[in-house]
Amino acid sequence: MVDYILGAESDQFTENLSRLCGVEAKWVKIRLFPDSEVCPRIQNPEGLKGASVVLVFRAESGRIAPSRYLMLYYLTAMNLKEHGVSEVIAVIPYLPYCRQDKRFLPGEPVSLRYVAQLLEASGVDCIVTVSSHVMGTETPLQDYFSVPAIDLDGFKPLAEYLKSMGRSYSNAVVIAPDEKSLRWAEEVRMEINAARAMYIKKTRDLVTGEISITAPGEDLSGLEVIIVDDIASTGGTLVRAASYARSRGASRISLCFIHPVLIGEALPKLVAASDEVIATDTIRSEVSRATVTKLVASTLSRI
Ligand code: R5P
Q1: What's the CATH code, domain 4-153+291-300?
Q2: Is 202 a catalytic residue?
Q3: Beta strands across the sheet bearing 149-152
């Protein structure tokens, strides 16, 4: 049983989670020093002794600073434990560094494993995240952690949002921008009763990061296309997939993804390439229309 939800001052996500869990919210005041060092100050920490606390922060789209974001958890969890908190459950809606889950090139770090060790060293007792980049792979998130690590499926709230729009998708094709994401496209297709799901083949150059697409010659004339992915970072993957769909005759294109990292000009590019851009609120953004808070709250109620 959780006693408090602790998050950054007046973040809507924390407020919603607190309401859905029926648990009081407490606040952390985040101060940034001129050199960008972060100082999260727990408000009234005395009352937290012996408590079980959910700690939740959100990164901001376009200005995401993954290392600083992780330091927020590290510094606050450490501090909570020093103030006598008995249990810290870290809800990390977007877990950074997951894409570097192995050494792709000799000498590279296995960043995800090191990040897991960092979080554990801060005293975190359990991790709850949403669609980490290793979800559905041979090495699930739990394999990187010794404490419980719960990886929730963010495509469910995304599909729920699509359904809530009251449109019929019986003529729609759900497209995954790579083979790995086909299972998520299939999941969304089933949830929204779309006609079919397919993937396009994407190859990323390990050194330059350049993406090339080898697309099948599908005829998408007059069809609605929903392209789904876990992350939009530079937006390159989704823009290429959208331009493929457009070239095959798609009449309407929706870009749906879980984590709106959206660096630089990514969002205007996605908007220009499609008819609609929909993300979840794992990261705060202007396209965060679907919420993962209900999913997180129902998970917390079972811990
Ligand atoms: C890759 O494996 C991921 O699923 C995303 O497709 C990728 O991270 C998106 O990155 P970007 O928006 O920079 O193309």
Answers
A1: 3.40.50.2020
A2: yes
A3: 38-42, 24-32, 4-8, 52-56, 87-92, 126-130, 149-152
